[in-house]
Amino acid sequence: MSATHPRQEHARFPLSVSMVMIDLDGTLIHTAPDLTTAANRMLADLGMPAQDPRTVSGWIGNGVPRLVKRALTGQMEAEPDPALFTRAYALYEKHYAACLSEQSRSFPGVVEGLEWLRSSGFELVCITNKAEAFTLPLLGDLHLKEYFALVLSGDSLPRKKPDPMPLLHACAHFGIPPAQGILVGDSRSDVQAARAAEMPVICVAYGYNHGEDIRESGPDAVIGSLAELPHYLKRHP
Fold first, then answer.
1. SS (H, E, C) the chain
2. Tens of pLDDT along 52-95?
3. Are residues 143 and 161 in the same domain?
4. Domain containing residue 174
5. pTM for the whole thing?
6. Residue 110 maps to a domain
7. pLDDT tens digits, the chain, 237 residues: what are they?
8. Where residue 121 sits, what CATH number does that domain have?
9. Active-site residue, selected from the candidate residues 23, 34, 186, 220
10. How many other CB atoms are there within 10 angstroms of residue 212's CB atom?
11. What is the rounded CA–CA span in Å between residue 126 and residue 24?
12. I want to staple 197 with a disulfide (CB 3.0 to 4.6 A). Which of 8, 16, 123, 164 is the partner?
């Protein structure tokens, strides 16, 4: 077993599931470099100082609007001036669209994990808080879109993670109970969404979790790469 964290007591592995939902930023793809580039180009346009890439990495995971607000205020939950935010958001979208996949790359083990999941017959879903206008082109540019039968972006439904709505929507789409699904993510928002949907959750150790150790959020397991999933999952009959 090559997992980087002991198995939690509240899950019994391998889990028997039929659908695997996977987060994008920080789980499938290392997007921080391009997100940082867009943020700093936006700030330059506004005459504001650039942010450190490590700081921006800690802001990722709650969608672009919140990322823009954090870049403008330097704080996790502060609200900038509404007019400034409106101007900044339009600038950010322009810059991010231009550099969407310049530096972003899938994490080690992602393709191996996806190949195993697909060949094993799991239904695969990408569930992300990133807007669809960025999600689909990015998955396409990195040749990952072909693995997913369903992609749910941050603006696909009325609510997004940590609300359980996207997870439950995916279950309804494939006609399965939540217990036959699992979420693979990297942040406390993923853990909260899965717990609210009453389904198991596995997190990667390398992702974007606002600078916090993901183990503190209590996922069922923490893994070093998606290539480790065969140790934790089996296809539900």
1. CCCCCCCCCCCCCCEEECEEEECCECCCEECHHHHHHHHHHHHHHCCCCCCCHHHHHCCCCCCHHHHHHHHHHCCCCCCCCHHHHHHHHHHHHHHHHHHCCCCCEECCCHHHHHHHHHHCCCEEEEECCCCHHHHHHHHHHCCCHHHCCEEECCCCCCCCCCCCHHHHHHHHHHCCCHHHEEEEECCHHHHHHHHHHCCCEEEECCCCCCCCCHHHHCCCEEECCHHHHHHCEEECC
2. 999 999 999 888 999 999 999 999 999 999 999 999 999 999 99
3. yes
4. 15-30+105-235
5. 0.92
6. yes
7. 334 433 444 578 999 999 999 999 999 999 999 999 999 999 999 999 999 999 999 999 888 999 999 999 999 999 999 999 999 999 999 999 999 999 999 999 999 999 999 999 999 999 999 999 999 999 999 999 999 999 999 999 999 999 999 999 999 999 999 999 999 999 999 999 999 999 999 999 999 998 899 999 999 999 999 999 999 999 998
8. 3.40.50.1000
9. 23
10. 11
11. 7
12. 164
Q: Clarify whether 23 is annotated catalytic.
A: yes
158 and 133, same domain (yes or no): yes
Q: Are residues 26 and 116 in the same domain?
A: yes
